[in-house]
Amino acid sequence: MLLSLVGVAIFIAVIALIIVAMSTKPYPDLGRYDSEKYFLNEKQEKCLFPSINDPASVELSVIVPAYNEEERLPMMMDEALEYLEERKKKLKSFTYEVIVVDDGSKDKTTQTAQSYCNKYGSDKIRVLTLAKNRGKGGAIRLGMFSARGRYLLFADADGASKFSDFTKLENEMKNMKKDSSNRAVVCGSRAHLEEESIAQRSFFRTILMKGFHFVVWFLCVRGIKDTQCGFKLLTREAAVLLFSNLHVERWAFDVDMLFLAQYFNIPVGEVAINWTEIEGSKMVPVFSWIQMGKDIILIRLRYFLGAWKITEKSKLE
């Protein structure tokens, strides 16, 4: 009887693996709709976005994925631009751009972001409006592929991360030893705030959080305490390789990105940053952790089976 049950379980597992392998696209979709190739400048003229294939022409690109962020985006943009403009005054050679990626919002996120373009000019602020919702990872990917920066930072639209902490990531990046292709990644981290957050969570939510961290560590990414913080800095060379291979477009995309970074032996640093809980999060804690846990298991499984392919050739090439 026991042997029969084991045999049935193995049979079901094999069928499940075959289904996963056969239903998986081997390479990520790097395409975009025609409307996503353009932005409006301050004169409301339609302009073509540059390509990640082009040489860098500014020092820093800030990618801000935004979905229904009409209300929270202004606080983040005001803080970021205050820092960036002040830095430009002190260092004339410093150049930057902010690309707000509207991920198919149903509110006035695009109009809100465009108002900053009208004020600061399209050389500094650009809005990429996606034709449909792709998920945070998908939105960041298209923002990266439209960026001009030597360094590329993605930052959440809610302003939970203190933007001036970019300096911490930048210093870590400068002190890191890059690989032979000038690739490196620096992650902002909230791990130092974990004890305080545990005290405010229920026992059940704490168990789920710990379980999620264990699954990430065991299956995909080791050596990084906080994989999910939405404040990460990449060199242009790292960004193009990683986002050309990124398969996950929704919440678990950070884990996929860092898994790929470790696969390619790209140096990854981690720096503690200031972080504040902001109301209006799109994540439902219990459901989101379970969903991401499932996604992480599938990430490992699909790479293990070879259902997802990884290529050394990036979009840049």
From TrEMBL:
Pfam families: Glycos_transf_2 (PF00535). It comes from Magallana gigas. Gene3D superfamilies: Spore Coat Polysaccharide Biosynthesis Protein SpsA, Chain A. It is an enzyme of class 2 (transferase). Residues 61-237 form the Glycosyltransferase 2-like domain. CDD domains: DPG_synthase. It comes from the Eukaryota. This is Dolichyl-phosphate beta-glucosyltransferase. GO terms for cellular component: endoplasmic reticulum membrane. The keyword Endoplasmic reticulum applies. Belongs to the glycosyltransferase 2 family. One of its GO terms (molecular function) is dolichyl-phosphate beta-glucosyltransferase activity. Its EC number is 2.4.1.117. It is a single-pass membrane protein. One of its GO terms (biological process) is protein N-linked glycosylation.
